[in-house]
Design goal:
It is globular and about 40 Å long. Strand 7 and strand 8 form a beta hairpin. The two termini are about 20 Å apart. The mean pLDDT is about 95. Helices cover about 30% and strands about 30% of the residues. By secondary structure, the chain is of the alpha/beta class. The chain has an eight-stranded mixed sheet, with helices on both faces. It has helices at about 35-50, 60-65, 75-80, 105-115, 125-135, and strands at about 5-10, 50-55, 85, 100, 120-125, 140-145, 165-175, 180-185.
């Protein structure tokens, strides 16, 4: 049985928008302003190598599909080779290899993915999808890489879904004060 793992770069004030600077956000690229160090890089590489599949929202999928196919190396090879699922009602024919569009009921699609995969089904970015998964209690693990920066505006990871109790299972400070925190549902 697979697990849904949401992994995000977030600011201290919970903003997850445009950490890489490719989305025309006024504070875009904020994650590159603080070094996450070798340990932070290793965490992200290990996360990718342990993933069984990617589950992405359309916008994140399109950004990844534009960036990753032309890259090489261990991380890129893993991303390019593994199964990718994109939740979208508008995308019909994904071009990135091993990609499938999911346009049905989210709860049913996630249940099917978890039944079809034995490992982690990892969600990167994908604000709307991540919020929907959290709202529906479909997230088995939440991994946050919290950067010591306050942005004041932008898309936030947690919407207005209400109270969620989580249990911290791992934390570590890496690089120049970047905190890795791993949570599971507390219930």
């Amino acid at each position: 049985m697979g697990r849904v793992v949401v992994t995000e770069f977030v600011s201290l004030d919970g903003v997850m928008e445009d950490p890489g600077g490719a989305e025309d956000f006024e504070h875009g690229g904020w994650s590159f302003e603080v070094a996450r160090g070798d340990e932070g890089d290793r965490f992200k590489l290990d996360e990718a190598m342990e993933a069984d599949a990617l589950l992405l929202g359309r916008r994140t999928y399109e950004g990844f599909a534009e960036a990753w196919p032309d890259r090489s190396g261990e991380f890129a090879d893993k991303f390019n080779g593994m199964p990718k699922y994109v939740v979208s009602s508008t995308l019909s024919e994904p071009e990135w290899n091993n990609s499938t569009v999911l346009d049905g009921d989210l709860d049913q699609e996630v249940a099917k993915l978890k039944a079809d995969h034995d490992g982690d089904i990892v969600v990167h970015g994908s604000a709307q999808l991540a919020q929907a998964l959290l709202d529906r209690d479909l997230v088995d693990e939440l991994r946050l890489m919290v950067f010591p920066v306050v942005l004041g505006s932008g898309k936030r990871l947690f919407g207005d879904s209400g109270k969620k109790l989580l249990r911290l299972t791992h934390s570590k400070v890496v690089g120049d004060g970047v905190t890795i925190m791993v949570y599971e549902p507390a219930g």
